[in-house]
Amino acid sequence: MEWWLTDSEGIVACWLLVFVVGNGLRGMYCWFRDKDERRRVEELIAGDLHPVRASFLLGGVAEAAETAVCMLVDDGVVKVSATGELRPTHRGRKQTDRALRALAGAIRTTPRDAPTTLYEIPAEARFIRFRELVERESPPVRLTASGRSQTLMLAASMVTALAMGVHAGVTEAPMPFVPEADRLVWFYVCVAAWMVQWGPACLWPSERRRRWKALDTYCGDETESARAALPDHTRKAIARTKERPKPPPPPPRPIRNHTRSGGGSWVDSVDVDSCSSNCGSCGGCGGD
User: Sorting pLDDT into bands at 50, 70 and 90, what band is 171?
Assistant: First the structure.
């Protein structure tokens, strides 16, 4: 025990071991915490997930709207123009899914002179019923990792490096492996220990990393199979209106002539007769 507390090599090994144990405890906590969610993901992959819900898990409301439009077009409920405008057909198969039925009803109530475009579905108020049903009926799965693990381990790497330096200062331990070196070199030892711990800490997933690769693959397959029922040119026409077009640039402002304080232009202030009568007095043009 004395080697861990007073020997220089023992101090370094002690705090590196503390960091390793902290990572292990955090890993065990996350494993038990996500046990039920892992089982839920396995059930989703083994079951039959609706393509609209699968698209929502894959990319949110925008992806769900695109898949829903493709399914309505395939069922003959909606038709698509060459520019991607959506119009109801008042025919086609009856929709059994509530979200698809709500979307078809919202498209039918759109005025005839104002066709629906794909980018309006995730934003316009008349499609709020569709969005609510998609979000409510989608399985409650956390798709991205918790960023606390990475933050905690990065903080732990810094804390253990500082604690190593304080420990070495309190015990007045010599330099590890080089006892005759100046004890101020302990600073560089602590920095090196922090860098060694910083690498494994960064391996913890951040909040932007998706957690379930198998679920993403399954949802991607379900989404693609639902959209593949349409011809390629129809799919491209629908996807073309996925993003709201940028507004045209404002027209350029007209250029106005700067006026004098008297209200006239500077051209009007020039005495042309005076200039012509005095021409030649300087001899520059010969008076011609």
Answer: confident
Pairing of strands 78-80, 86-88: antiparallel
d(CA 160, CA 14) in angstroms, rounded, equals: 10
Beta carbons of 117 and 86 less than 8 angstroms apart:
yes
For the chain, the helix, strand and coil percentages under 3-state DSSP, each to the nearest 5: 60, 5, 40
Neighbours of 72 (CB within 10 A): 24
Convert 212-222 to b/e letters by CB count within 10 Å (16 or more is b): beebbebbbeb
Integer Cα distance of 6 and 2 in angstroms: 6
CA distances from 288 to 232, 274, 275, 283 (A): 78, 16, 13, 10
Q: What is the pTM of this model?
A: 0.71
Q: Answer with the residue of higher pLDDT: 226 or 288.
A: 226
